[in-house]
Amino acid sequence: METIDHTTAAAGHLHHPHTQRAFGTVKKCVAGYGALGVAVLLVDVILSVKGHKVSSFMWGRTGGVLASAVVAYWLTGLAARGSRPAYLRVRIISVVAPLAIVAIDSIPGALPPWFVAMQIAGALVLAPAAFLTNGSGLRAAFPKSSRRSKRS
């Protein structure tokens, strides 16, 4: 009598070339998002060193973007290897992060225009990942199933 946790992907769909190609594209989107986050961090550092004002809000936003990029990249790797929980989290991050960036950057006067432009560019780079991870192709690799099988 045992319970089995169904947290891995359906093997047939997971190893399909289209599925792995989609995960490769998601990884590239997340890496691009992270690279733009690093670029924003570098500009923050340069401005700070040159004596320009870099607010704690800007530092926090930059750190949040970088953290979400690192986590999303790691989770995408796990999902590509079959982790359903990682896949579900990538789906959420890829939708929520761009929306949050646009919403927060829309606050008038809160951030300088260059910062807003760079962050929105990052959101646009990440957006295709949301469509891929929520599309039918990758969803087929992670079918909904009962969380636990019944006892024998």
Radius of gyration: 19 Å
Number of strands: 0
Mean pLDDT level: 87
How many angstroms does the end-to-end distance come to?
Answer: 6 Å
Uncertain runs with pLDDT below 50, 5 residues or more?
A: 1-7, 148-152
* Main structural class: mainly alpha
Quick one: biggest sheet? none
Shape: elongated
Q: State the share of residues found in helices, binned by percent.
A: over 70%
- Assembly classification: single chain
The portion of residues forming beta strands comes to: under 5%
Order of helices and strands: HHHHHH
Number of helices: 6
Note down, in words, how this protein is organized.
It is a single chain. By secondary structure, the chain is an all-alpha fold. The protein is 74% helix and 0% strand. It is built from six helices and no strands. The chain has helices at 11-14, 17-49, 56-80, 84-105, 113-134, 136-141. Helix 2 runs antiparallel to helix 5 (113-134), helix 3 runs antiparallel to helix 4 and helix 4 runs antiparallel to helix 5 (113-134). It is elongated.
